[in-house]
Amino acid sequence: MRFPRLLAGLAILFAGSAAMAEPRPVVVASGLENPWAVAFLPSGRYLVTEKLGRMRVIEPDGKVGAPLPGVPRVAIGGQGGLLDVVLDSAFESNRTIYFCFSEPDNEPEGGRTNSTALARAQLTADRTRLENVRVIFSQRPKVASRNHFGCRIAEGRDGNLYMTTGERFSRKEDAQLLNNHLGKIIRVAKDGAAPPDNPFVGQADALPEIWSYGHRNGQGLTWGPDGRLWEIEHGPQGGDEINIVQPGHNYGWPVITYGENYGGGKIGDGITAKEGMDQPLHYWVPSIAPSGMAFLNSDRYGKGWRGNLFVGSLKFGYLDRIELQGAKVVAEHKLLEEGRARIRDVRQGPDGLIYVLTDQTNGQLIRLQP
User: Fold this and answer.
1) Using one digit for the tens of pLDDT, what is the confidence trace for 303-351?
2) Is 148 a catalytic residue?
3) Angle at 212 between CA 207 and CA 215, to 5 degrees
4) d(CA 87, CA 53)
5) What is the pTM of this model?
6) Which residues, other chains included, contact 181 with Cβ-Cβ below 8 Å and sequence gap of 6+?
7) Phi, psi of 6 (to 5 degrees)
8) Catalytic residue among 148, 181, 234, 249
9) Where are the domains of the chain?
10) What is the CATH number of domain 68-284?
11) Region at 146 (left for phi over 0; alpha for psi -120 to 50; beta for the rest)
């Protein structure tokens, strides 16, 4: 009789262990105004962008520093502003960062057009300003729009930079054309040059920086455990997507989509598949407005969470923990639902823990504590 009791006791123990694996949110810093992205500096500090054109350093104790001088002029409004930021892979030796933003035209105050731009700079050793700031890529053409800038950055193992660019909402058909940067993922060297092995280099009527096309508004970009580039993008009304990005491939927008026009009605021919256009790995209907994505490559939350994909939801205010089997989504779990805050960015920190930024006027940097 003691053996069944032992099994029952072990079952309770394992159930308790599973329950303890659910993380609790710990506020690292607050008082941020619509923060957009976070990068992890040495010695436990954080580099955060705010959409209104400010970049700040957060101390390990949560103290938020003053805005860093050196940020270039930003076209602020709608979805535009100071957006993603990442550290160079050799940051500790070169102090180089890359950031993207909505870049205004060269007209005096009041210029109407703008585009997504990628810049590099150095953060001074005392972390008080940006130096040697240089724009290394500007999306062409500039458009009179306040929407769909894309603007997520990932450095590849090849040392090149990959970045999402939106199709600016009013120019969705341009996502299918290679003579512009709208609705594309671009790949450039760290000086902004197009690498010679980009898929459209040397092709007439194609811009050499393009890596893939047919995208709408990419809001997440990261390297998966499989070594491939994963992207999330907003659909219209429904049809948010997870894509595995391959060079030269066409991801279909706006020819194929699982979404519909705002207010209802088909987009184009209302088709969801077409030869020569890649299907998403996964899509959401209704839209969750995904933003920020990170794979967990640590065991800090237990081995069962290792390899899971984490994606923030702006629309519903939760963190989506996504279980995968290879390139197939097998389960989704909603975390951080209680607060119902728009989640803008999701990153794994050097400590192996997941961090999120909430997109609010009193935004927070939150750590998921096991």
Assistant:
1) 999 999 999 999 999 999 999 999 999 999 999 998 789 999 999 999 9
2) yes
3) 110
4) 18
5) 0.93
6) 115, 116, 139, 140, 165, 207, 209, 210
7) -65, -45
8) 148
9) 68-284
10) 2.120.10.30
11) alpha
